[in-house]
Model the fold of this input.
Amino acid sequence: DIQMTQSPSTLSASVGDRVTITCRATQNINTWLAWYQQKPGKAPKLLIYKASNLESGVPSRFSGTGSGTEFTLTISSLQPDDFATYHCQQYESSSLTFGQGTKVEIK
Amino acid sequence: QVQLVQSGGGVKKPGSSVTVSCKASGGTFNTYIFSWVRQAPGQGLEWMGGIIPIFGTIKTAQKFQGRVTITADESTSSAHLELSSLRSEDTAVYYCARVRTGCSSTSCSFDYWGQGTLVTVSS
Done:
């Protein structure tokens, strides 16, 4: 299976900060990568698909870049609603895998 | 608006089986592709398998092969996950998820998710 590693595991930030989360794959996944936001007790919500495509209805402060094995999710100006856990997911392989998650906390 | 409503789960004894169901509404069931994803307490997300109901195509993660049965029933617009030989490590919230519109296989991102169903394995 393709392993996905996110960094950092936890990130402390303030409202208005620019936040970047990294996701690395153990092999080339082209741009077959998605990002999700998850709040406690809730299902994940799709933010970005195919590495850089913003899902409908997702605020434009979220953006994704990368290809191959290294990817980033950026929140340009952190809002109170953005404190959550973020997951990356690869779908290059028929055996889908997720990163371990990055928790964005209030500083 | 697409909705996935889950049912089933609960507290189960080790060695037993559990079924979780996922009823879809708000769209055309035959155009959907479903996956099942679980999340153990405090852990990340783990893909278990998926199904393309219109073709009957099923993909299962190697880890769960032999223990997972994934089915779909067009008459009830539902997908089902059965997990057998339960052990304590199977304690988790189980989610159904729909493959994003435009994808034609189980290998895709997920645009709609069920609310999650807790399965607790305990003697």
In short: Chain A touches chain B at residues 1, 32, 34, 36, 42-46, 49-50, 55, 87, 89, 91-101 (CB under 8 Å). The first strand of chain A starts at residue 4 and ends at 7. The mean pLDDT of chain A is 97. The two ends of chain A are 35 Å apart (CA to CA).
